[in-house]
Design goal:
Blueprint (H helix, E strand, L loop, with lengths): L1 E2 L4 E2 L12 E3 L12 E7 L8 E4 L2 E2 L6 E6 L2 E6 L10 E5 L2 E4 L1
Length: about 100
């Protein structure tokens, strides 16, 4: 606000958060049936709220079979006790960016 006594004007500052990018991409994982498979990637910034993991086209959530972790800029997916049905493409998407393994 600028106030000269008889006149006043006001303006506002609005900031948009810069979009996160993937700086460390997913790597392929080979493991044995019944073991855990761990996928990790790292983003350019911590505050990426639209990050999502997928098995094929199916979005994943944390539950007894899948553990999703976020530690700073590092995002991890742990598939617990994998079976042959878990074989396929794992992808991670944030904004317009994605990585697959």
């Amino acid at each position: 606000t600028c106030d000269t006594g008889d006149q006043q004007t006001t303006a506002a500052v609005h900031l948009k958060e810069a979009a996160a990018t993937i700086v460390e991409r997913l790597k392929d994982v080979a493991t044995y049936e019944g073991e855990d498979a761990v996928f990790e990637c790292r983003l350019s910034q911590e505050t990426a709220q639209d990050a999502q993991w997928f098995l094929g086209d199916v979005p994943l959530q944390s539950n007894e079979m899948n553990e999703i972790r976020v530690q700073g800029t590092r995002h991890s997916l742990i598939l617990r006790k994998v079976t042959l049905e878990d074989c396929g493409s794992i992808s991670f998407r944030v904004g317009q960016h994605s990585s697959a393994a």
